[in-house]
Write a structure and sequence with these properties.
By secondary structure, the chain is an alpha/beta fold. The chain contains 14 helices and five strands. The chain has two domains: 71 residues, no CATH class; 158 residues, 3-Layer(aba) Sandwich (Rossmann fold), CATH 3.40.50. The radius of gyration is 25 Å and the shape is globular. The chain starts with a helix and ends with a helix. The structure holds adenosine-5'-diphosphate and magnesium ion (MG).
């Protein structure tokens, strides 16, 4: 109860109400404890104002991050912090850290992440998505097989309406698992439309288990379309080629070792 004795006698209710009317709800919440602390510690007035504004800014930024993460559809729990670089030496930490600055997102480039199953493609794509949100970019994450039905529904939309779709106008589009299933001819041309709309206007991350040479096969066997798509995707792009062991199998191996 020592806090009580330090509480100033001034009535903070009116101040709190003004903060609330200004929409500074977090500052309003923190007003009492901050003023009590300030009195106890003899804090300079300008510092108290700073602390109050910081409280508001910090909580707002937290809220923005949480909301953007929820809306992005990013899978949970994949961060650069919990990516084990030692396990996957073909992934250079310095290169990922450079990508994590998001300069390439700002420049509307493409990042192609290639590799066999389980090597951490989805993990890295999602972790870079989190970084992009932290840097203030809008991010949406889809597995290609989730996005294709939406694109089919929007097939007849005029360009002005299409441009309002999240997968077209969000700063960073992450497309996971491209190439698992070959596309139909219609899907391949919708994919082309997507890539052309975003070309130099929005960033894309694509994860795929297929090398570039297999893309015509993914794209309904259409070599010309595949060339047109790759031409746009690979122009000023970054390519991460992950070669290595599956992390999923490593977990399985260690579980087996533990039980065996
Ligand atoms: N180097 C790594 N460090 C930590 N976890 C990893 C690593 N690589 C993969 N994982 C984890 O293993 C699982 C499979 O990885 P994932 O990214 O889904 O692989 P891919 O998309 O290449 O098939 C995920 O749970 C992921 O978080
Ligand atoms: Mg994956």
């Amino acid at each position: 109860m020592s806090r009580k004795t330090a509480t100033p006698t001034v009535d903070l209710d009116a101040t709190r109400q003004r903060l609330e009317r200004l929409g500074l709800v977090h500052a309003a919440e923190q007003l009492d404890p901050l003023i009590s602390d300030a009195v106890k510690q003899n804090t300079a007035p300008h510092q108290v104002v700073d602390q109050l504004l910081d409280a508001e800014l910090e909580r707002r930024e937290e809220r923005r991050l949480q909301t953007s993460l929820r809306l992005s559809g990013l899978p949970n729990g994949h961060t650069l912090g919990n990516f084990d670089f030692a396990f996957q030496p073909s992934v250079e930490r310095a290169r990922i850290e450079t990508l994590a600055t998001c300069q390439w997102v700002r420049e509307n480039r493409t990042l192609l992440i290639q590799g066999p199953p389980g090597v951490g493609k989805t993990h890295l794509a999602a972790a870079l998505g989190v970084k992009a949100i932290e840097h203030g970019f809008g991010v949406v994450f889809y597995r290609l097989d989730e996005l294709l039905p939406a694109m089919r529904r929007d097939a007849e939309l005029p360009p002005a309406q299409l441009r309002r779709k999240k997968y077209i106008n969000t700063g960073l589009l992450i497309l996971d698992e491209v190439g698992f299933e070959p596309m139909t001819r219609q899907e391949a041309s919708l994919f082309f439309r997507l890539v052309s709309h975003r070309y130099q206007k929005g960033a894309i991350i694509i994860t795929t288990n297929k090398g570039v040479e297999a893309w015509p096969e993914i794209l309904a066997g259409d070599e010309i379309l595949a060339t047109a798509i790759l031409d746009r995707l690979l122009h000023h792009s970054h390519v991460l080629n992950i070669k290595g062991r599956s992390y999923r199998l490593r977990e399985l191996e260690s579980n087996l070792a533990a039980t065996g």
